[in-house]
């Protein structure tokens, strides 16, 4: 999975983020549970960035606390990084599958 966004300068030297994207590869056939974990993992990145939560790294302390909370309260098995047990890697023309597209007033 991948989470991306764009940044632009606004008034008084500040910046804002926009065009948030979550992508999941179509070249890997994931099991349903793993696909769910990947999507939640990327949504956590989105949540942290959208709400301007300060963290001390890409998978920093805030991310790890959120991940632990979700795992404990919702029975997930979220991991960091690209540990996958995919069913198969297939040849494909398009590398990414857009799961959802959102248009937000802020962002």
Task: Produce the secondary structure layout.
Elements lengths: L1 E8 L5 E11 L2 E2 L2 H19 L10 H14 L13 E2 L6 E3 L9
Antiparallel strand pairs: 1-2, 2-5, 3-4
Helix pairs in contact: 1-2
Explain what this protein looks like in three dimensions.
With 107 residues, the protein is α+β, with helices and mostly antiparallel strands. The protein has helices at 32-50, 61-74; strands spanning 2-9, 15-25, 28-29, 88-89, 96-98. Strands 1-2-5 form a three-stranded antiparallel sheet, covered by helices on one side. A two-stranded antiparallel sheet has the order 3-4. β1 and β2 (15-25) form a beta hairpin. α1 packs across α2 (61-74). The protein is flat and about 45 Å long. The model has no long low-confidence stretch (mean pLDDT 80).
Overall mean pLDDT score? 80
How much is the radius of gyration in Å? 15 Å
Percent strand equals: 15-25%
**Portion of residues within helices:** 25-40%
Tally of DSSP helical segments: 2
Residue runs with pLDDT of under 50 for 5 or more positions: none
Structural class: alpha+beta
Number of strands: 5
Kindly, what is the distance between the CA atoms of the first and last residues, rounded to a whole number of angstroms?
21 Å
Order of H and E elements = EEEHHEE
Strand order of the main beta sheet, please?
Answer: 1-2-5
């Amino acid at each position: 999975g991948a989470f991306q966004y764009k940044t632009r300068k606004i008034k008084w030297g500040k910046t804002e983020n926009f065009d948030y994207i979550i992508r999941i590869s179509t070249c890997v056939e994931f099991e349903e549970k793993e696909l769910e974990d990947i999507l939640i993992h990327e949504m956590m990145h989105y949540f942290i960035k959208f709400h301007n939560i300060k963290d001390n790294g890409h998978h920093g302390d805030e991310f790890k606390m959120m991940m632990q909370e979700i795992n404990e309260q919702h029975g997930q098995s979220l991991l960091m990084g690209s540990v996958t047990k995919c069913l198969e890697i297939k040849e494909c023309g398009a590398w990414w599958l857009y799961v959802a597209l959102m248009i937000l007033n802020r962002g």
